[in-house]
Hints:
Layout: E1 2-3, E2 10-11, H1 14-25, H2 40-51, E3 56-57, E4 64-65, H3 68-78
Amino acid sequence: INKCSECSYTTSTSNELQLHxxxxxxxxxxxxCWRLFGQKANRDRHLCLHTGHKPYKCDICGEKFSRxxxxxxxxxxxx
Length: 79
């Protein structure tokens, strides 16, 4: 039997226990794919992959990016 160290949840498999920990106890887990992140900012940046949100826009050509570092690379390479 596998027991959660943070609550009274028990399960017969370690995979189910890992899934429980991700879903219930991790504050920085992606609620779409359950990937874990050490920081909220990294999780929020990851969510752009699922939503298609691209908040960073090139002021020269108008191309949009989900990450600021990708916009910076774009500007160095093309402008």
